[in-house]
Amino acid sequence: MTPLTTAGSPLAPASAAAPAAPLVCLHSEIADPLMPGLGGKGRGLARLAALGHPVPPWYAVTTAAFTAALAASGLAARIAARLDGLVGASAEDVRAAAVEIRGWILAGELPPELAAAVAEAHAACLPPDAAVAVRSSAADEDGASSSFAGLHDTLLGVRGVDGVLGALKEVWASAYSERALIYRKARGLPLSPVAMAVIVQRLVPARASGVLFTVNPANGDVREVVISAVYGLGEGLVGMGMAADRYVFAKPALARSIRSGEPTAPSVELAMKTEQMLPQPAGPGLAPQPVAAELRDRPCLTAEQALALARIGLTVERQLKRPQDLEFAFDESGRLLLLQARPITDLEEYGPAVGQRIVWDHENWAENYPGITLPLTYSVLRRQERVGYRSLAEMMRMDPRRVFEYQLTYDQPLGYICGRIVTNEVSRYRLMRLIRGIDFNRCGLLGALGFRIDELDPEPDPEPTPLRRYLVELPALLSLFAGLGRDFLRVHRDVEALLQKARHFHERCAAMGFHALEPHELLAIYTEVETQLVAKWKSPLLNALFLRMLYVVLRRLCRVWCGDTAGSLHNALLRGDRGSESARPVKLLLRLATTVHRDPALRE
Question: How many other CB atoms are found less than 10 A from the CB of residue 302?
């Protein structure tokens, strides 16, 4: 069908020059899910369909139809004038305006061109006698910062084109309902004009339906997927508050289940479900019906249905990059259909919910920067850390092409929280995953380097096959160890050379009058230090790597040889080392504290 547009119709303004938006469009004609005029709910459905998820057939009466119809009837100006007086108005004034505007819209006639376009779309998309849902889809509904959930009307069980045209005006009128106007005022949104699209969607004859949240709505936990399900249509849950079965899946286990194909079990709370909402046999609307006695205390979803639904929910969240609130239905044949998707808008932090995990760690910086660090110091350290990571990549024989692909990760090694420097442990972990051969024993090798694998990678990639493990990963790992061994034989010489350079720069800088230097001269000195010192940080990194490895070996030997189950002997043995430069400030502070303690005047 050819969508009816405002171009060349009585609804079009005489000066219209831009391409006009369609008044009605079929779901099959939507090439771009973000096309104007679909409204929030329409965009959500279009995205789901574009991503390949199962959606019932539907068509949209666009915001252009709403705007054109109000303009043609003269209601647009009347409504705007009526709402202009509501700034600072009381709740009673808002209620009176809403009732008045609703009466205007319901009493108005739809343009003949629009009625014909709706009839044509209905015939092309749906059986003549099919029950449909007529849903609101305001332009700012289900958006990133506002949802309007439950504020606009949805009419269920509507039948026939005449029923749809009547329901269309009902939904349009709900754009100016008392609840919607109060919500807009509270959010600082304009009261007029409002752009309202309407979605006409096949009503699924559901055996079971409900809602899925990819964040636990009770406590905001972004690591859980929660499903609430009832027999019949979801209106029993959403509109009537009927008792529902509840399924809670842990996201890490669910993600592993998606990759491996193995099932994972949720925690389940079953409700006693005595009633369900079903379409009226004749005429619009729904009616409560009793649930068969033998089904009331049984789960309304099978284990397979719940798992399939949870997997789709997590997939949709990651595809759309935001936590989602999905409505779903299983028809009589057990086929899953998604009825709508809206982003959850009231979360302060949703990164972890979509796989963007961040784990900050202050431990490595607490020793050298124990207090507040000023922004300039942080900026310098952040740049030096980037350069240092390149030395690490060189030392660990990482593939330069993969390092280039992960450039953004290299550029995010540090954070700055409340004046303290912290390390982005997830970025550091991802960089170490680039080491050739690491997948031969990923958990063991990275765990030995101090990474808390369960925290940083709760959804790890599957282990390599035995063939790849021994023919690809093991040779690469042995080659890496051989190279590191050769480097270690030269480490004392390289460290001494680096220290000599550091002393040289220190002596030069101590003799300089920095206040007299121009900015470009200061930048030249900084660049020289970075290229000659920071970029040559391979030997200290190598030294630290072998210290870490030897520390792990010592801890294991103490446990195996000496029965040190408490895990403290290796630390006790190392405390006798007097050559640790990093321990010197602490020892000096202890001496200072002892001196103060012995002198009453200093204590005072």
Answer: 12
Residue 114: predicted pLDDT? 92
Amino acid of residue 449: L
Q: Which residues contact 338 (CB under 8 A, 6 or more apart)?
A: 48, 53, 54, 55, 312, 316, 326, 327, 328
User: Rounded to an integer, what distance in angstroms lies between the CA atom of residue 21 and that of residue 32?
Assistant: 13
Q: What pLDDT band is residue 478 in, cutting at 50, 70 and 90?
A: very high
Phi, psi of 421 (to 5 degrees): -85, 135
Q: What are residue 527's phi and psi, to 5 degrees?
A: -60, -40
Q: What is the pLDDT of residue 179?
A: 86
pLDDT at 354: 59
Contacts 24+ apart (CB under 8 A), 368-374: 368/582, 369/420, 369/421, 372/419, 372/420, 373/416, 373/419, 373/420, 373/421, 374/419
Distance CA 326, CA 214 (A): 8
pLDDT tens digit string along 406-433? 776 666 678 888 899 998 888 888 888 8
Of 537, 530, 540, 523, the C-alpha closest to 505 is 530
Which two structure tokens, joined as six digits, stand for 384? 């030096």
The angle, 0 to 180 degrees and rounded to 10, between the axes of the packed helices 491-510 and 519-532 is: 170
Mean pLDDT of 94-114: 89
Which amino acid type is present at position 171? V
Q: How far apart are CA 253 and CA 223, in angstroms?
A: 10
Distance, CA of 194 to CA of 524 (rounded, Å): 58
Inter-residue contact 169 to 158 (CB < 8 Å): no
